[in-house]
Amino acid sequence: MPISPAGMSVLVGSIKRRSHSICRSRLFSSQPSKPSRFWDHRAFLLLAAGSGGLMLLADSALSQELNPAEGSDKDLNKKKVLVLGTGWAGTSFLKNLDCSKYDVQVVSPRNYFAFTPLLPSVTCGTVEPRSISEPIRKIVKHKKEDVRFWEAECLEIDSKQKKILCSSNIDAGKEKEDFLLDYDYLIIAVGARSNTFNTPGVAEYCHFLKEVEDAQRIRRSIVDCFERASLPHLSNEERERILHFVVVGGGPTGIEFAAELHDFVHEDLLKLYPSVKEFVKITVIEAGDHILNMFDQRISKFAAKKFQRDGIDLKTGCPVVEVTDKYISMNDKKSGKKLSIPYGMIVWSTGIGTRPVISQFMQQIAQTDRRVLATDEWLRVKGCNDVYALGDCATIDQRKIMEDISYIFKIADKDNSGTLTIEEFNDVIKDIRLRYPQIDLYLERQRMSNATKLLEGAAESGHDKTIELNIEQFKSALSHVDSQMKTLPATAQVAAQQGNYLAKCFNKMDKCEAEPEGPSRFRESGRHRFRPFRYKHLGQFAPLGGEQTAAQLPGDWVSIGHSSQWLWYSVYASKQVSWRTRVLVVFDWTKRVIFGRDSSGM
Ligand code: FAD
Q: Partner of 42 at 20 to 30 A CA spacing, among 160, 175, 459, 574?
């Protein structure tokens, strides 16, 4: 289906602005055309000019050639669902979507899913890169309907025209090819990039740990450092610098990498490079006062002590201010001095930043005051229709109960008496709890057995023992509830649950018009057809090296040590995306125990 010229103005403008040239015919197709085959079809058309029937046949072949992304074999009545990204959110959405109901297309610069929690293990050769990667085409192979995949990067989104501009990056050496795709529903799951906080020198001199390629580069760099430090002509001072490994960021990824590196160095590399043993040092630099600050204090204290025992230097309260080719500088908050230390290799792991395509899109939809896309609780991007965002590139802008409190009171007060009884409150509380999850968090935190306990306190403070509340008492009863609102963490767990949730909504989209689900009484103009997304926290791990892991499970249950390491092994094996990767990962773990880690510089 050709794209109307009027509807293209924004994206065409942006294509023109791009430096590389694009042939004009490509602008009017959704896929880069191949000139040679295009002219083959022209010749065929001329030969067949005498036959109307043949002409028709050739015509349709030509339009397919120019527009293969629009696939004429697709049911035109089906809505086009365009998914950006093949990470945790995008893959979970695709796995759970009933693709027979939609015309599904996927755009991502990588044609595989990567199991990111095992990336730190790849950096040290514990697990092979291929063991944690699964081709996306294989993951969706069993679907009844074809899912079309384009290995490309989305550069711009135009939500008004419902089009996106993509750039194929298949042959990195050659000129990139741009093309347009249109959609009915856009699912943005492009994740995030590493955040440098604009610290000078970080982009040039530090390693990041986001992708499989990053992990492979880090492994090569570690081995290179050992080889370089072993060269005969170096001074001891230079050897010391080269073998100083610095990890910036005391979050779970930085700490897990530091622990893996420690094990790799002490269990494998020092056996092969005994002459440089005395020069090796690992330092973790953290801007905050302690490491693993999103974990229970018991875990962060245990981790700090374990690192101390292992000889890992922990510098807390030291925000990094500059990195040069040989030195990393930081402000030491305690002494107020600036420290500069020589290093051989740095891994930067300080959190996530916005991808350029998201920054550009946020400008377009006037969400400029944020780092990630704001969505409502149904994962719809605020300020535009039919665009959903999930995973690390988005955050749910949870609605405050105080914003709707008068409305809730009015709905609940069925007899219009101006006061609310326990019975009236109980009648609506189920709907309210669905819409405002902070109520449940508040009840849990206050150890309240049920929601009516909220009212009892307010009634007493209002000198009314009959538990019948006026609007002011009702407001005061729920006034602290919003304090429990939290943004969801940028984790695979959240991304995967969101992908699963959204796919289920899409699967039921056609059935739900007549019978809306969810808190219907608190719907805004009938827009809500599904229950809002609810995150279910299943716990988190912090591997600390030496076959010890800290686990924080729901209910603040903390376990640290070797038994948690076995739990970690079983959870990560079970969460693999396919049986192939599951078997390979378990095989890699076994191989490591028997033969050690791979220390070749490949
Ligand atoms: P991603 O998984 O990053 O996927 C983004 C996808 O979008 C990729 O396929 C990418 O190629 C594609 N993409 C990027 N740009 C574009 C574009 N312009 N157009 C189209 N596609 C694009 N979480 C946990 O819960 N537990 C853990 O133990 C854990 N460990 C981690 C360890 C490491 C080293 C890292 C880096 C992260 C870890 N996380 C963990 C966090 C977790 O990986 C992320 O929260 C999760 O990957 C987010 O999923 P996502 O789908 O939003 O993004």
A: 175
Q: What is the number of the ligand 1 atom nearest to the C-alpha of 120? A: 34
What is the pLDDT averaged over residues 526-533? 67
CATH number of the domain residue 379 falls in: 3.50.50.60
CATH number of the domain that 271 lies in? 3.50.50.100
Ligand 1 atom closest to the CA of 352, numbered from 1:
36
Residue to mutate, 94, 105, 108, 538, ligand 1, most ligand atoms under 8 Å from C-beta:
108
Is 226 found in the same domain as 323? Answer: yes
pLDDT over 80 at 447, yes or no: no
* CA distances to 128, 271, 332, 529 from 124, in Å: 9, 15, 30, 47
pLDDT band at 73 (very low <50, low <70, confident <90, very high): low
Q: How far is CA 579 from CA 63, 574, 576, in A?
A: 40, 9, 7
Say how many Å lie between the CA of residue 153 and the centre of ligand 1. Answer: 15
Most confident by average pLDDT, 89-98, 170-179, 378-387, 528-537: 89-98
Alpha-helix residue ranges (DSSP H) falling in 105-211: 119-123, 136-139, 202-205
The closest residue, in CA terms, to atom 41 on ligand 1 is 491
Total domain count for the chain?
A: 4
pLDDT of residue 37: 37
Ligand 1: which atom is nearest the Cα of residue 154? 19
Burial of 594 (0-12, 13-18, 19+ CB in 10 A): exposed
Domain range for 224: 202-353+538-595
User: Same domain, yes or no, for 359 and 349?
Assistant: no
| Domain endpoint, select from 18, 41, 66 | 66
Distance 495 CA to ligand 1 centre (A): 8
CA distance 110 to 210: 13
Confidence of residue 49 (pLDDT cuts 50, 70, 90): very low
290 and 384 in one domain?
Answer: no
**Pair 151, 60 in one domain:** no
Structure tokens at 92: 């979970």
Indicate the top mutation candidate among 88, 181, 218, 567 to test ligand 1's pocket, ranked by most ligand atoms within 8 A of CB.
88
318 and 208, same domain (yes or no): yes
Task: Establish if 72 belongs to a structural domain.
Answer: no
pTM of the shown model: 0.84
Q: How far is the CA of 390 from the centre of ligand 1 (A)?
A: 11
Instruction: Of 67-81, 407-421, 425-439, 533-547, give the range with the top mean pLDDT.
Output: 533-547
> Do residues 48 and 170 both lie within one domain?
no
Answer yes or no: is 527 within a domain: no
Q: Which ligand 1 atom minimizes the distance to the CA of 90? A: 51
Q: State the average pLDDT over residues 446-456.
A: 74
Q: Are residues 113 and 161 in the same domain?
A: yes
Instruction: Select from 279, 120, 307 the least CA-distant residue to 207.
Output: 120
Distance 90 CA to ligand 1 centre (A): 10
Is 47 in a helix, a strand, or coil? helix
Contacts of 53 (CB under 8 A, 6+ apart): none
Nearest CA, atom 27, ligand 1? 117
Same domain, 369 and 317: no
- Evaluate if residue 448 carries a pLDDT over 90: no
Pocket test for ligand 1, best of 92, 107, 108, 116 (most atoms within 8 A of CB): 116
Q: What are phi and psi of 245, to 5 degrees?
A: -100, 125
Question: Given 447, 462, 484, which residue is the final one in a domain?
Answer: 484
